[in-house]
Amino acid sequence: MKASSRRWLALGALALAMLTIGLDVTVLTVALPTLAVDLHADTAALQWFSGAYTLALAALMLPAGALGDRYGRKKFLLAALVLFGVASVACTFAAGAGQLIAARVVLGVAAAAMMPLSMAVLPSLFPDQRERQRALTIWITATALGLPLGPIVGGWLLRNFWWGSVFLINVPMVIIGALAVFVLVPESRSTQRVPIDLPGVAASALGMLGLTYGFIRFGDSGWGDPVAWVSVAVGALLLAAFVWWQREAEHPLIELALFATPGFRWGTAFSIVVNFAMFGMFFTVPQYFQAVLGVDALGSGLRLLPLIGGLMVGSRLVDAILPKLGVRVVITGGFLLLGAALVLGALTTAHSGYGYTALWTTLLGAGMGMVMPAAMGLAMGELSAERSGTGSALLQALRQAGGTIGVAVLGTVLATRYRSDLGEYNRDPIADGVNAGVAVARRAGDASMLHQVQSAFVSGMGAMLWVCAGLCLITSALAALLVRPKPPAPMPAPDAAESSHVR
């Protein structure tokens, strides 16, 4: 098989692995009501089904990237894929809430290695900058596609099988991905055999753990939760200590000098902003479909198909226009499109109907498809093959943190407006959320209450989307002002394409 064909087949294996992670993030959302009954899980357990995965993912990304650089990215990626498959089987046959939470932690550990290391092998597979950008677009699109596909796949599985099937679906995908990675992906590692920065590993893991846990609690309990404030404060102090230590350490875990390069600095910032807006949409639109339009979980997932269509169009557009117009034009235009789509979303009413939502979610998907590959390509372009693992892990960890913080902040905006617009119905359990409010109104057969609850939620969703729209429009202006075109890199010699970093 030709080397070029092997590279693209290897990329397909990596994309399949990332699709699995994207699916696993959202597929659980539609299974929570069933899990509550079958596993006798209370509200706290349901929150930990998602939170355990997120915490492990956030805490271990940076160490996973460093270990891949040190001992071999392919080796650790294969181990992570196998672990992900084993943990998926454990989730499938969990007999109680505690077993499922433990298995979800292991899933998060595996995903923490899969995400940065699958990205880190791209520079070795695709040394040419243009091919690498195209490969990165495919990799990112696969990751993003898994998010809206999760509710569709999960809804269909729950309608036809038992709840464990939403985890069992990971296993064949992981097996295919692992076999393809084993056969097609070359081993690569840093040639500098430096010691692992253990104090940096501990400080970064505990800091990300504290920060992420605190913002998850804010999202669940509100901004008055003292435990959340303590957790965020401790996490922030540990991360500050981590940054200080990275300046002093002889062999630091991450290269802080990366932030001195405009490409990595702004590419990372733009990636965080688009993640922030994306999580805001995923936080509200499925609730809108179910609570206002009255569809079930599968119907809600199917109504996200226009988003997928827009995402595919946007990612195809990047391949065509990025070489001609440059990264500044693409990112600026992409954020303008995101901002416009979010403005349309903020103008949604309880009577807008699905057609209007399909329009603006399509535009939102197109904007995401343009911005995400271009922004991450801008950041990845500054990474050497030596430290691609730690650099990719740093980028992914910051995106994950941005998404978690975004859900907490935007959730507070939504909840505050929702409660203020409830009027006389601002009482428990209606004030807990739109799903509880709709359930109370329908049980009571009170059409006036139902309309008030739905209108209050749409008002809160609008306020939240206005925040996202403003952020995207400001970011568009910053991209136009701050992104500078980079001269194209010379084409590598055919024999040097893999370089001495690939074993």
UniProtKB/TrEMBL annotation:
Ordered alphabetically, the record's keywords are: Cell membrane, Membrane, Transmembrane, Transmembrane helix, Transport
PROSITE patterns from the xrefs? MFS
The record's subcellular locations are: Cell membrane
Asked whether the UniProt record includes Mitochondrion among its keywords, one would answer no
Main location (coarse class): membrane
Could you tell me the membrane topology recorded for this protein?
Multi-pass membrane protein
> InterPro entries, per this entry?
EmrB-like, MFS, MFS_dom, MFS_trans_sf
Which superkingdom?
Bacteria
Q: Which residues form the Major facilitator superfamily (MFS) profile domain?
A: 10-487
KW Cytoplasm (keyword) present: no
Pfam families according to UniProt: MFS_1
What are the TM regions of this chain, as residue ranges? 45-64, 76-95, 101-126, 138-157, 163-184, 196-216, 228-245, 266-285, 291-313, 325-347, 359-380, 463-483
Q: Which PANTHER family match?
A: EXPORT PROTEIN (PTHR42718:SF42), MAJOR FACILITATOR SUPERFAMILY MULTIDRUG TRANSPORTER MFSC (PTHR42718)
Name by which UniProt lists this protein: DHA2 family efflux MFS transporter permease subunit
- Originating organism: Nocardia callitridis
